Each structure stands twice: as structure tokens, then as C-alpha cells.
Protein 1
Amino acid sequence: MTGPVVRARFVVRGLVQGVNFRASVVQEASARRLTGRVWNREDGAVELVAEGDQTSLEDLARWLGEGPRLAEVAAVERSDLSGDRRYREFSMAYGPAS
């Protein structure tokens, strides 16, 4: 990674559950050397927290706007978070990050 570690939370809305979205996020984020976790929300959205350099987070944000082949992304919301690195890898979760 280059540059300081940045943390961001993303909420992805649209047809994003049941289309391999979370597994694809893990693959895409890991390829960008990001750490964090992704989970399905009860409202049908997918939420994730990602940590890494700013360029990699921006690349992931662009990818989230498209998603995997079967997804139909309607919106991606990003909010930057403060704090130190919390994750060692990128993983799929079954609930909100702690």
C-alpha cells in the first residue's frame, strides 16, 4: 500500500443480494490489498467497511458502482471513518462490523 491508511464505509443499494455480490467484493477488495468486511443488510443493501490507501478505496468505489455481472447497482454511498486499522484481511460477515 502507498500513503496513509484510510477507512470508509460503503452502502450499496439495488439488486445486490443473491447475486454473489459479497463474495465478489471480497475478491475485488483483496486484489486491491484492502482489508475489511462485507455483509448483507436487512433492508436489501450490502454494507462494507474497507481500509487501505485512498487510491485503492477509490478503485473499489468505482467497481462497487458496477458490481458483479448479475448485480444491478442503483446507488453507492460512501462515508469516511476515523480510527486505526482494525482488520487483517477482507472477509464476508453475517452482520455489522464491530
Note: The longest helix spans residues 21-31.
Protein 2
Amino acid sequence: VSLDGYNRIYWSTVSEVNSDYFIVEKSIDGYEFETIGTVKSAGSSQSLIDYSFNDYEQRNETVYYRLKQIDQNGEFEYHGPIPLDFIGKDKLSISPNPVNDYLSINYPFKKNVSYIIRLRDLSGRDIIKITKYNNSFLNHVLVETSSLKKGVYVLSVESIFGFEQQTIIK
């Protein structure tokens, strides 16, 4: 998500086996990538783990990020690339779109405010409804979407400060 002065990159794993670390890479054109940092991984896990990395070289244009996940034996696998549009600090951003098993919702949620996150079908029926009270500096929510049927949905974030929505595809 594009925030005030930096981009925060989020990802999650649902299981890890002998994982060592992640290399975060960035590109301006989506083809040539450079390493911008590393994040230590959990190693081995069978539960959901959220990760993040802050990129303080923010550009006023679309940039691309990808992850290189390195195992303890040196083997590696790439994930991405994912484009990130510069949208300023107060915008809703979702990824991936089209969505598979999990939807990452990035939004500058304000501290001590209640939010309602809704995923609706095109008839307006709530498919997923999450009510969150942000008592920390939350700006990322991961929603499981593996049970969604193929189709078009509308995701919205509502609070006393307003309402934002985006269309997603499964």
C-alpha cells in the first residue's frame, strides 16, 4: 500500500517448510528487478503468518514488487511481480485482483476507530462482513476468500470518516 512517504509491502504464508528468508525486489518496468531488502522468515510453520516490508524510496508512478523466498538449503522460488500504483496515503488498495484464496486489504485505518469491511455480490448481498475496532496502527487486513465462487464482487471499507469501495474478481 502506498502511504505518506513510503510503500508498505505485505504478504502472508499459510505454511512454511525450512524457509530461511525473503528477498524483497523492486522494479520500475516490471522486468528488471533490484534487491531492496530482506525479511527473516519463520522457518517451519503450519499456520498463517503475516509479513511486511517498508520501501522508503517512494515514486510517483507504478512500481513492481516481487519476493524471492530462500530455503535453508539455498533453493529459492519467486512470487510476483505485483504492481503498486502510487495512490497517496488515504486510499484503499487490494491485492491480488483477481483473487484466489486470500485477499489483502491495505488501507490507512485510523487508530481508535471502528471499521466495517464488506464483500458483496453484484446483487448487494453481504458475502463477507468483518467489523474491526482498530486499537493499534493496523493498515492491513487479510481475508480468506477460498470459498468464494467465481464472479465479480464489491469490497467496501466503511467508517465514520467515509466509504471506499473497489471491484474484485474471483
Note: Residues 157 and 163 are 6 Å apart (CA to CA).
